[in-house]
Amino acid sequence: MTATANEYVGAAAPAETGVPIPQVVAFGVMTTILVAAPFLVYPVFLMKALCFALFACAFNLLIGYVGLLSFGHAAFLGAAGYGAAHSAKAWGFPPELAILFGTAVAAALGVVIGALAIRSKGIYFANITLAFAQMVYFFSVQAGFTGGEDGIQSVPRGTLLGVLNLNETLTLYFVVLAIFLAGFLLIYRAIHSPFGQVLKAIRENEPRAVSLGYRAERYKLLAFVLSATFAGLAGATKALVFQLASLTDVHWTMSGEVVLMTLLGGLGTVFGPVVGAFIVMALENYLSQLGAWVTVVQGVIFVVCVLTFRRGVIGELGNLLRKSL
Amino acid sequence: MADDVILETEGLTKEFRGFVAVKDVRLRVRRGTIHALIGPNGAGKTTCFNLLTHFLAPTRGRIRFKGREITGSRPADIARLGLVRSFQISAVFPHLSVLENVRVALQRTRGASFDFWRSERVLDGLNGRAVELIEAVGLAAFARTPAVELPYGRKRALEIATTLALEPEMMLLDEPTAGMAHDDVERISALIKRVAANRTVLMVEHNLSVVENLSDIITVLARGEVLAEGDYRSVSRNQDVIQAYMGSGHA
Lengths: 325, 251
Ligand SMILES: Nc1ncnc2c1ncn2[C@@H]1O[C@H](COP(=O)(O)OP(=O)(O)OP(=O)(O)O)[C@@H](O)[C@H]1O
Ligand SMILES: [Mg+2]
Known about the structure:
The complex is a heterodimer of chains A (325) and B (251). Chain A has 325 residues and is mostly helical. Chain A has 14 helices and two strands, in the order ααααααββαααααααα. The longest helix of chain A is centred in the C-terminal third of the chain and has 27 residues, at 216-242. Chain B is α/β, with parallel strands linked by helices and 251 residues long. Chain B contains nine helices and eleven strands. The radius of gyration of chain B is 18 Å and the shape is globular. Classes of the chains: A mainly alpha (325), B alpha/beta (251). At the A-B interface, helix 1, helix 7, helix 8, helix 9 and helix 10 of A face helix 2, helix 3 and helix 4 of B. Bound molecules: adenosine-5'-triphosphate (ATP) and magnesium ion (MG).
């Protein structure tokens, strides 16, 4: 009975489960570039971009697949950074534990902020997340262990799992790349999981999903916590790479920057946030001579991009090729 | 006798800023019946459904389902108790395929809904049952079609298949045959009759031949109030009912 039914589905159209070929190809291209890149480009720049790429992917999980615009994601990036830096420096945690601890801090923060914010929608949701992020910011300014304006400096990178010396730049790079790829793939899996399917249904028609018995807030909350957790993973990794946790990462402008990256690359696309993060990082890098004007130039570029390709770089590309990327 | 009432309301009332859309409605739906709720446009039928499933909070009144007070329960929890509604404006997940639409419902009762670490391929295990349901509503040829591309009548059929996937003890159908071509109306009526064999159905329906054909009992609502109740013969002869329908331009 079931066998015939499945045959029937197979006959009706080509199989749709499994990862689409264009995405497999794109993933191969991305990985190849990232493996080769440190031999051609300044690795520290790449590591910074990879941390932000993961941050943007985490943010995209929420806005692209649940439709919630958080304007407080800096809180997760920054809090995880403080968590990792403090545990490594003050408590002598090895890097793997420091990263885990920082990520756990972000996850816990995600549960608290998410539980309080998830019932609101649209601009209210953005406002509430911003308000909580500002609280985290002021806490970071006041609390002693964060080092105030100076931040936590000279964080020891240590030896990963007791074997990989993270003070060697290339070793560090490939560890960061591995963390990024793991995070990227886990986010991809979450989107393409049974849970992801329910998220999709809720986004498509929330009243209908509710009428089928789905308690929509719980699914949104889990998505929020996952998003916060991966943002935290990015922040904790970043703190070890730069040996620094500072107020910059909890500042509201960081929440704005991740919105920019995601929109620029393509909201709700798999690869868009990665591309967006690299574009923004490259711009910041090359425009840094302009000093305070960076923000203005960035703003102009952003406005032009949003007006010319609304779907973002990858969104437009996917549309052109008629493939979902 | 009283204990085979599955759904019961007492003094159910809904006011919208002073306007009374549903007024003091006492409804008793007996287990295993097809109960029709009819009435002219704006009578308050959809509002009643929204109150029963708590998509709207009643201003006053109480609702009991299977002997349990559900007046303040949340919509998702009411669905979990076995009271599942459809919508007047066809409610599908537009960019999911027909198969996926039904699977979303199956997934709710068969678990894995929170599993974010597993591949969505585990959902293929639900395909067999999903296809049976899709075939039952005549959508077999459309299994892989995105719901948004279906013609209106077929969207309604999909909605019923999705509702049935939950095997609810009681279904609330809001105008299940509205906008359907004649053939579809017959197929859907036959389907409702078939699935009602082991469950209770409360349906809003404007097509009076469908009502005559299917329903065991009819409640007529006008201006938010119960005007009459009984079988098709008695209700269709009721002077108040004829008046109400004439007044609103219905034949
Ligand atoms: N959310 C709302 N706010 C204000 N008024 C409402 C609201 N929902 C319904 N109404 C009003 O309540 C009355 C009853 O509406 P309802 O949709 O329940 O009617 P109905 O019997 O389902 O009609 P139809 O046969 O046209 O579907 C109408 O006058 C409608 O304008
Ligand atoms: Mg109605």
